[in-house]
UniProtKB/TrEMBL annotation:
Transmembrane segments: none annotated. Gene3D superfamilies: 1.20.1050.10, Glutaredoxin. Residues 86-211 form the GST C-terminal domain. It comes from Sedimentitalea nanhaiensis. This is Glutathione S-transferase.
Amino acid sequence: MYTLYYYPANANAAPHMMLEEIGADFRLSLVDRATEAQKSDTYLKINPNGRIPALQDGDLTLFEAAAIVLYLADTHPEAGLAPRVGTPERAVFYQWLIFLTNSLQEELMIWQYPDRLTGDDKPAEAVVKTGAQARAAAYLDVIEDHLAANDPYFLGDTISAADLYLTMLCRWARPMTTPPRARPAIARLLDLTTSRPAVQRAYAAQSITDGIA
Ligand SMILES: N[C@@H](CCC(=O)N[C@@H](CS)C(=O)NCC(=O)O)C(=O)O
């Protein structure tokens, strides 16, 4: 049985969607950010970075949401959430998943937590926040252009883990000046992913009641 360490709507959301999509036997273990449990000695033994999520599968412990998503996709090929390794489609899948986690997710994190870079310097915080939002918006525009040309998913007709990952990030990005859903192709993808029972189960289990993305 898998154990997913989570906090509602955090970076565990995409791994959680994957567990539901593949029909895995899993349990959720709350890492309560309200009490800084992610920095506890117990959790640091699971993820030494003190970040959520982490996944345990028997003797295997994994951190980094994208690594968990890839592991679940690879060990459950029957779910069809990633193209076969070594194919051009797999390369395109890697490109978008890594773009999401390395580029869009990073800018969203800076936008949400600018003080991690600026400390108490409030004027600098505003500048950092504005810049991060602008870069995140530009990345969303790149995704929008790709989805408009490859409708409806990153890989065209076939849903993949990258679409679920985008769905997670789009929830975080909802308070942006131009939210992801203002872009028609992204909105169409979100309509499709958020109507999936597996995705709805994942958010319901995290007690998310204000919409998915
Ligand atoms: N790159 C990591 C980022 C994980 C991350 O930053 N998680 C946040 C929640 S979304 C967290 O644990 N924040 C608590 C903290 O930084 O103390 C991943 O994708 O797994």
